[in-house]
Amino acid sequence: MPLLPAVSSDNAKDHYLLVFQSSLAQNCIPILRSVLSERIVSKIQRHCVLFCLLYPPASLVPTTEFIVVHDWLDRVPGYDDSDKPSELLEIVEKSLEDTSLPTDIVVDSVDTLLSDCGSLSATESLLSKIYALVKKHQNSRLILHTQSPSPLLPLITSTSFSTSLVHVTSHPPALIQHLATEFLMPPPPLSPLPKFWSVFLPVSERIQDTERLVFGPGGEGSGHPAEIVVELIVRDASGRKRGLERVLEGWSSNSNQGSCDLIALESLKDLMKKQKEQLSAPDPTQNLSFNLNLTSSQQESRAQVPLPYAHEGRIVPSPAPATIFYDPDSADDIDDDDPDEDLDI
Question: Where is the composition biased (Acidic residues) (predicted)?
Fold first, then answer.
């Protein structure tokens, strides 16, 4: 059963911070729109304040009847004299004070807010103040939308910012197809989960390579319009369930609930069918006098081995200064005396 509807619903408790991460290769807006539209379908009494800094309101919500929208798309620094960060904080504080209903504070996007604030520290401080106000209000949530790569992402997803977190990252289905064909690593259950994550995570973090799959030769030129591969990270700090959970799910606009199993995506059905046929083919390792298969513990140990390309882009400490050690052989003419000592200089 998909995890995303359970942790992003209006009835979800202890998840005060939701981060939706888009990229050029695959937009996360359809999922965010679905989450914001849930209260309209279920008719749950809930207050929502939406700040549009990047996308127009029509892209995020089907109707503004039950949502307070602040459309700030035309507020460009240098052309507008208003203090956007201070005004945003005042609106959030007043909105939470004026209602007893659970409230969603939605900011799209924090990267645009970063350009308005001018520095990482100022933006993080502003978001921390907003999050502190939201957390004091019962069953309220702070929903942030970001574009990757984003310098703010490591800050707002850290435990120092929030102990509880729901982090939704969108990936194109072309990434799963690439892993299955080039790395022979189809998604679970066709591959062991630890082994799949050891390949998926470093490849998905190379954003330029993912964009090349979509915009390069043979790519679709844009993310899939109706289907998304969702990487979901849930960090729960409440009660006895403290820990981190990472799952890979599918999301389809053709599904009733949106979320679905990864193998249910239409764009991956042919791939999954082909992989299943290959797995059901006769095993060439049968009837051998030795064993070529790995046990589950051996597979887990192998999956924990760091891959050489997993450290790309990371700062590696400079090694110690190099030293040359020379051991002369018997034919070398080496004399410790000064060859010019007989010269009267």
Answer: 329-345
